[in-house]
Amino acid sequence: MQLTIYRGSREIGGNCVEICSGHSRIVVDVGIPLFDADGEPFDARVLEGKSTEELLKQKILPGVPGLFAPGPAPDAILLSHAHLDHTGFLTCAHPDIPVYATKGTSKMMHAGGVFARGVELPRERFRELVPGQEVVIGDFRVTAFPVDHSVFGSAALLIEANGKAILYSGDVRLHGRKPGMAERLWAALQGKTVDVLVMEGTHLGEGKSKGLNEFKLEEEIVQHIQTATGLVLASFSPQHVDRLVAFIRAAIRTGRIFVADVYCAYVMHLINLESIPRPTREDGILVFYPSRLASSLKRRRLDKIHDMFLTGQVTLAEILEAPARHLMLFRPSMIDNDFGGRMPERVRCLFSRWEGYLNQPDWMDARSKIEAAGGDLIPVHTSGHIFVQDLAEFVRRVNPRLLVPIHTRAPEAFQGIFEPVRVLRDGEPLEVT
C-alpha cells in the first residue's frame, strides 16, 4: 500500500488522506481547514461561486487526482465523522464517487445541513459502514470501529490490503462517557499487526497532558446550576451526545426542566438512544423554537421537521415566568431575535465549547449583555480530543510498526511518545512495506 497525506500533516483539521493498493484508491476524509493561509479562521463562504479549478489554483483545495484535480476518480471516499474539518469539501469532490460512513455520521451531517449550514451526505452516494463489519472496496477491506469523540457516529478505520494494515484513528479520546469503545477496538486488534497508525495529535505541543473527563465535568455543571438563582443557559453542540447527556442529567439532578431548541430536539430524534429521553413533554423535555431557526425551516419549506416537536413547544414567556426552574439551550443570535436585546436578571450561561469562540464578536457581545443583566458566563468544557497522557496509552495498546502523525501542529512531539515515527509533508507518499 501507499499512503499520502494531502492535508493535515502539520495542522489541526482539514484532513485528507489517499491510500492506494494495486488498482484501487480510496480517500479518507475531505475536510476544510480550520485556519486559512494567514492564520485566520477559515471562512467557508470563500467556496461560494467558485469553480473547483479556481479553488485548486488558490490552493484552497488539495490537489488529489480524480477527487478535485484532473485524473481517474478514486474508488471511494471514507468519512471518519461529521465535523466539517473532515467532511467540508465533500461538495467539491467528484459527484460520482461513493461515500462510506457510519449511519450516525450520515444522520449528523443531515442535521448539520438542515440547521447549521453544514454539508449533507447525498443519499444516493451514501454507503453504510456498519461498526465491526468488514466492507470490500476494490482491493481494500475496510472495518469501522466506533470511537469516543465530540460528535455522534465517529469511527476509527482499519484499512487492509495485500497483507498490510493501516489504522486511521480519526478524532478520538479516552475521557468520554464511553470508555468501552476503545477497549473493544484494542480487543479487535489483538493478534493483528498494524503496519501504520495514522494518529491524531491535537494536543501535542499545547501542554494538555490531562484534563477533566465527562463525568467530572457533569459534576461541575451541577454545582454551577445549584448556585444559580435565575435562568441557566447552556451553550454546546447538540451533536455532542456526551455533553447533551451531561446537561440533561444535570437538569434532572438540580430539579430543573431541560429546554432543547428545535435543532437539539431533531438530533435527539435522529439518534434515538436509550440513554437520552425523547424530546417530548411526557419525557420531561420541552422544546423552544428560536425565531431564526423556525423562520429558516419555514422559508425552506421544511414543515415536517418544524412541526415535529410542536406538542412539546414552550414559549420564552413561559420560561421567564419561572426562570429558576429551567435549563435552556442557548445561542447568541437569540439575544436580539428572541430576548429583545436584553437578558433576564441574574442569568447564568454555561459555555461548553472551545474557549477560542469567546473571542468572536457574537460571543463578546453576548457576554457583555449577560454581565449587564447581573449575570455571568462560565466556561465548563473538556476537549473532544485525546489528551497526551491518554495518547501514549492508545498508541501502546495498538502497538503499530510505524506511527504517522496527523491533525497536529507538533508532529515531531510524537517522537517522545513512540518510536518509530515518520513525519510526512503534505503530498509526500509513504510506501507501506
Would you kindly provide a written description of the structure presented here, covering whatever features stand out?
- The chain has 433 residues and is an alpha/beta fold.
- The chain folds into two domains: 2-208 and 384-431, Metallo-beta-lactamase, Chain A; 214-379, Metallo-hydrolase/oxidoreductase (Rossmann fold).
- The protein has 13 helices and 19 strands.
- It has helices at residues 52-57, 84-87, 103-115, 180-189, 214-226, 241-253, 262-271, 291-299, 303-307, 316-321, 333-337, 361-372, 388-398, and strands at 2-7, 16-21, 24-28, 76-78, 99-101, 126-128, 135-137, 140-146, 155-161, 164-168, 196-200, 232-235, 257-261, 285-288, 326-329, 348-351, 376-379, 402-406, 429-431.
- A seven-stranded mixed sheet has the order 6-5-4-3-2-1-19.
- A hairpin with an 8-residue loop joins strand 8 and strand 9 (155-161).
- Helix 3 runs antiparallel to helix 7 and helix 5 (214-226) runs parallel beside helix 6 (241-253).
- The longest helix has 13 residues, at 103-115.
- The chain starts with a strand and ends with a strand.
- 46% of the residues are buried.
Helices, strands, pairings?
Layout: E1 2-7, E2 16-21, E3 24-28, H1 52-57, E4 76-78, H2 84-87, E5 99-101, H3 103-115, E6 126-128, E7 135-137, E8 140-146, E9 155-161, E10 164-168, H4 180-189, E11 196-200, H5 214-226, E12 232-235, H6 241-253, E13 257-261, H7 262-271, E14 285-288, H8 291-299, H9 303-307, H10 316-321, E15 326-329, H11 333-337, E16 348-351, H12 361-372, E17 376-379, H13 388-398, E18 402-406, E19 429-431
Helix pairs in contact: 3-7, 5-6
